[in-house]
Amino acid sequence: MKGLKKFYRKTLQERWDVLQDRKILTNEQIKCLKRTTDATELGNSMIENFIANYSIPEGVSFHYLIDGRDYIVPMVTEEPSVIAASSHGAGLIKKAGGFKTKIKQRLMLGQIILEDFQDFQELREKIDHEQASLLRIANEAHYSLIKRGGGARWIRCRKLADDLMSIDLAVDVQEAMGANMLNTMLEAVADYVRKEFSQTVLMSILSNYATECLAVAECSMPLSNLKKENFTGEEIGHKIVQASRVAQLDPYRAATHNKGIMNGIDAVVLATGNDWRAIESGAHAFAARDGLYRGLSQWTIVGGQLKGRIELPLPVGSVGGSIGILPLVKVNQKILNVKSAEELERIIACVGLGQNLAALYALVSEGIQKGHMRLQTKSLAIAAGAKADEIQQVLSMMSKTKGKNLAAAKAAIKEIRRNKQHERN
Ligand code: NDP
């Protein structure tokens, strides 16, 4: 489209002008973009073709008692009820002593993919034999990691097809998520493999299937703690176990079960400046690790206690990427008061489990809609055009109507304004 060529070379003002001149946006809409940008235009130096800072609401979740320590958890999400549910789930777990966590190890994996090799077995032996040299080459490519106590740890080979294989490099990336440092190391090793072993390298890149960076969170509570209105604690506990079984058996349910878990996880990953696409892809790959896509968490009853467990890859960082750049991330790290990326992993795993408990608890008792719609109605009122001073009235009118939809919200606003007009007359 004319005027959009070389958009990346234009100043911010020129980009807005083009969008307005080409009638892609109105003057009002351009004003809306302008209001989001700050004096430093940080976003302009972070991404390409920047036009605005898109903002998502942030809140805090409470009751996270993890390994004996209390945490306040910042969460960034556009979805109503996620934070309320998170605090509710964490509260149920705190009442019974809180979460316990385990971190198995913290290594990131990268791949060098070779094609058209001759003999897999022979090449694997050669690589095994030269493992020490290859690790040294990797470490020399990002030497600062060694000084921090990290570095390349091991290499393995996997045959993917008759003509394709993967050389996997495992690296201790210390406090970073490690994508860029690992990619630098992989390219150095790939270069050596290409020249010294005369192999054809298809590509080198880290893997987001971070199986060597797993976090586990567990909790346990007496069934009596789950009692609610018309249900006994035993009934709710039994139903939660059944719901957990369904998520192990049926990918249709597992996807939604895991979406609920990621509601919490993504919100903290975003708040801490981490790469949520990386966490999402790793989590879903892990959910399908035995060939069937399953729920990431499981619930059982043992000796009158409901026990929950979640395990997933959480390659998050406390430095690197946008973490050191976005001002709010620093504030959120302060709210969390975490000392390391490993501690952050532990918290995020707990948020996933707490979120899951709250969702299952609601689903198997009163259903998710009762609580959800209370908050969803507020979004409907705003989407229908309610002003700040009209929202409460819209909510109260909609609480009396059956159809809680956009049309009902619009009708409520119309009535409120009509009544106001009458009063004025
Ligand atoms: P960086 O490239 O920012 O590297 C980490 C930085 O943190 C380095 O500069 C390192 O310094 C510094 N650092 C300071 N203290 C420490 C410490 N204690 N431990 C480790 N590093 C420290 O970030 P990452 O390599 O973590 O890469 C993350 C970014 O990569 C994200 O933005 C992600 O979106 C992106 N990405 C993701 C991909 C994927 O997931 N597939 C692919 C490509 C990019 P020094 O240089 O001195 O070592």
Automatic annotation (TrEMBL):
Statement: the UniProt record of this protein carries the keyword Nucleotide-binding: no
GO molecular function: hydroxymethylglutaryl-CoA reductase (NADH) activity; hydroxymethylglutaryl-CoA reductase (NADPH) activity
Pathway the protein takes part in: Metabolic intermediate metabolism; (R)-mevalonate degradation; (S)-3-hydroxy-3-methylglutaryl-CoA from (R)-mevalonate: step 1/1
Protein name: 3-hydroxy-3-methylglutaryl coenzyme A reductase
Alphabetical UniProt keywords: NAD, Oxidoreductase
Catalytic activity: (R)-mevalonate + 2 NAD(+) + CoA = (3S)-3-hydroxy-3-methylglutaryl-CoA + 2 NADH + 2 H(+)
EC number: 1.1.1.88
GO BP field: coenzyme A metabolic process
Gene3D superfamilies: 1.10.8.660, 3-hydroxy-3-methylglutaryl-coenzyme A Reductase, Chain A, domain 2
Family listed: Belongs to the HMG-CoA reductase family.
